[in-house]
Amino acid sequence: MALIINEECINCDVCEPECPNGAISQGDDIYIINPDLCTECIGHHDLPQCMEVCPVDCIDKDAKHVEDKESLYQKYLKLIA
């Protein structure tokens, strides 16, 4: 499934440059993740890089965008095509 940034985000600007798909951007109040671009870093890294660098652990799985690893990998292949 895609990831989502919750309201605990402190706008530290650390996650955005770590996203290999460009899925993270500044929203009105906090950073947001575009679920159409988020592959949880599958195809690029073993672990989601935004979650790895977040100092406040405000990034969670997005229950509204459930995807298995194969679906995320297929999305990755489309994004790099």
UniProtKB/TrEMBL annotation:
Q: Does the keyword Phosphoprotein apply?
A: no
Which PROSITE patterns does the record associate with it? 4FE4S_FER_1 (PS00198), 4FE4S_FER_2 (PS51379)
Q: Provide a Gene Ontology MF annotation, just one.
A: metal ion binding
Protein name from the UniProt record: 4Fe-4S ferredoxin iron-sulfur binding domain-containing protein
Reading the lineage from the top rank, the first entry is: Bacteria
An example of a Gene Ontology cellular component annotation for this protein is: cytoplasm
Which residue range or ranges hold the 4Fe-4S ferredoxin-type domain?
1-29, 31-64
Kindly give the Pfam families that the UniProt entry links to this protein.
Fer4
Q: Per its Swiss-Prot or TrEMBL entry, what cofactor is needed? A: [4Fe-4S] cluster
Q: What InterPro entries does the database record attribute to this sequence?
A: 4Fe4S_Fe-S-bd, 4Fe4S_Fe_S_CS, PSI_iron-sulfur_center, YfhL-like
The source organism is Methylobacter tundripaludum (strain ATCC BAA-1195 / DSM 17260 / SV96)
Q: Which UniProt keywords apply?
A: 4Fe-4S, Electron transport, Iron, Iron-sulfur, Metal-binding, Transport
